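Wait, mind explaining this?

_____
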Amino acid sequence: MKQTDYASIIGPRLNLSLQQVEATLRLLDEKATVPFISRYRKEMTGSLNEVQILDIQSLYLRLQELNKRKETIFARLDELGIDDDALFDKIDNCWDAIELEDIYLPYKPHRKTRADMAIERGLLPLAEKILKQYPMQLPDNEDDLQGARDIIAQRVAEDERSRNAIRREFTYTAMLTTKEIKQKTQEERQQALHYKDYFAMRVPLKHIRSHQLLAIRRAESEGFIRVDISCNEEKAIEKLNHIWLKGHSNASEQVALAIDDSYKRLLKPSIETEFAASSKEKADTEAIQVFADNLRQLLLSSPLGAKRVLAIDPGFRTGCKTVVINEQGDLVAHTVIYHHNIESADELNNLIGKYNIEAIAIGNGTASRETEQMVRAIVDCLPEKNRPKIYVVSEAGASVYSASKIAREEFPDEDVTVRGAVSIGRRLIDPLAELVKIDPKSIGVGQYQHDVDQTRLRNSLQQTVESVVNFVGVDVNTASKHLLTYISGLGPVLAQNIVDYRSEHGAFPSRQALLQVPKMGAKTFEQAAGFLRLKGDNPLDNSAVHPESYAVVEQMAKDQNCTVADLISNGQIRAHIDLNKYVTEKVGMPTLNDIMDELARPGRDPRTQIDEFHFDENIHTINDLQIGMELPGIVTNISVFGAFVDIGVHKDGLIHVSELGKHFGKRINNPQEVLKLHQHIRVQVLNIDIPRSRIQLALI
């Protein structure tokens, strides 16, 4: 198929113009990346954003797969010697996967059925005669009648009209029912209690929330419940009768029996499987989107910037692993300190002074609050001008990093505890640069991530990381190969080549110098250059202005009788620029407006500045809580049913989505509408369930 043919299908489905879709498909086929297209090809696409381009790409791939499926079907029909132009046209014009499989179903290879065996016995003519439903002399042999009904039942089940009728009934009336499977051992019964909310459910399938469905399917896979999806059987059979019954003859009675059998034995199980899969896919989509949105927020967490940091991975028995890292994130020193130990307090004090520590990062795991309390007591004794700020940092995934190949390459001579502490410190300096080294699934910001489609999850998280890295941009002279890997057009090989070239030849003096890197061709340079920043002779190299637009900026400067540097530093000069003078066939107002925004804030980091945070000093465990307390907290995870908040008691509390609705005075469908990951908030304690370690909170 041609791009135009695909575009004519994609455009209406996504409510986009044919020209927008055609341009996007052409760029994608030319191996342009989504970040590059959305940022630097706005004139071609009509300023489509990343989400729209990804939607086009996703649908394009699905349609291509559907086209391949058609080719397989045509080959199968050819093997069967079928020559039916009407059937071929129907397949050609079908662009719905379910509809296509319905068309193909009567010709699809399958295991021998009761209908097949009846046909082998020569009962097809009898079935055809009965199906016409004229009054007739029926055979006395019940086996022959049963065989004829089996043939009719299969024909009913394979007919598109039948399947669509039952699908419609499932759409409107499908009920999901669960039933507990009694467990034999005490251990199994204890495990089953995790799912007790799902032991005896009966609820419309369309009203099930994604997290509920994923929990139900997990409980089913672990053998704790049985799940059934059924529609209104009476109405379903009534719809089939409307399609197939033609009167009240004795033959019609046989057809009615076949219809009943067809629904119960063939159609219902088949459509139930379809709806089980489609509802799971829908739940996966919602869960994956929540995970991706949380990951995006986490990767965009506020960076402290290049500071000298003392990082602590807290611990009781084995002590607190303590490291010093410099502005570039390099390990300078490491030791172990212990709570309630005067020598450790002195050592910590000495490290702060010796290395001019500007900030302290404390992991939020076990012993975090006690460690923070100890460190604050030491810092508060220092002269005010020498006091480093203290930050509690999420250490989710730090242990995964510390045992990874990446960590071993970075610190081959250090043990996992030191590597983990370094990761905590680096997360404070630049969360994005450190978190890209960790499998996103290990960061702990998703829900039911092991229950969703793993390929879809991996692709979505990969796209999210790429989107954020390119949105922020990276300094090509300091970025690790892991961060460079996600830059538009690069990948692992070129990222390593850049690092190797940088090590051998020193810092890149300009973006143009990147063309000297092995395997860096003109096309790759085009895709990557705008997202790579460096401080060199040309101030535009440290901006998001693409090299292909440098000539436009230089012409602007020439027209204003100034340098490019003057244009960047002087807003009054920029105010006199008439952008209409610089519009060409290739450069339109979207690009020119982007250029002006970038000149106003070149090389800006789009992330917000980090703020200090203090838990309530009187609260350390769940036993310290009382209903009605108002406390500071940090949002640690967001799901479709609420937001989890760290209030400093080693167990996150939950603000249910209904409570958010009460706070904002409106229905909240997605907590991400009103809260962000790592947001500092104040909450009120609504309920405390100490045996189950559950805390209910409200936003104040």
